[in-house]
Amino acid sequence: MTVKINYEKCGNISNCPGEGLCIKLCEQGALIDEGGNLKVVDENCDDCDLCIANCPNQAISKG
């Protein structure tokens, strides 16, 4: 199962207190910066949950 982004909570990478920490933590490249917005690349997600556990805005969840 892949992750889902709540874009209302996320607030774009430029407004993230973690400065895109989820992207930095994802070793599989499942989370990318697409024009300042967070995007999930489903086929790369290996369900490690690092992004969910470390999102300062609690904007990432299982989908």
TrEMBL record:
Gene: rsxB_2
Coiled-coil regions, chain positions: none
One term of GO molecular function: oxidoreductase activity
Domain 4Fe-4S ferredoxin-type: 36-63
InterPro entries to which the protein is assigned, alphabetical: 4Fe4S_Fe-S-bd (IPR017896), 4Fe4S_Fe_S_CS (IPR017900)
Protein name: Electron transport complex subunit RsxB
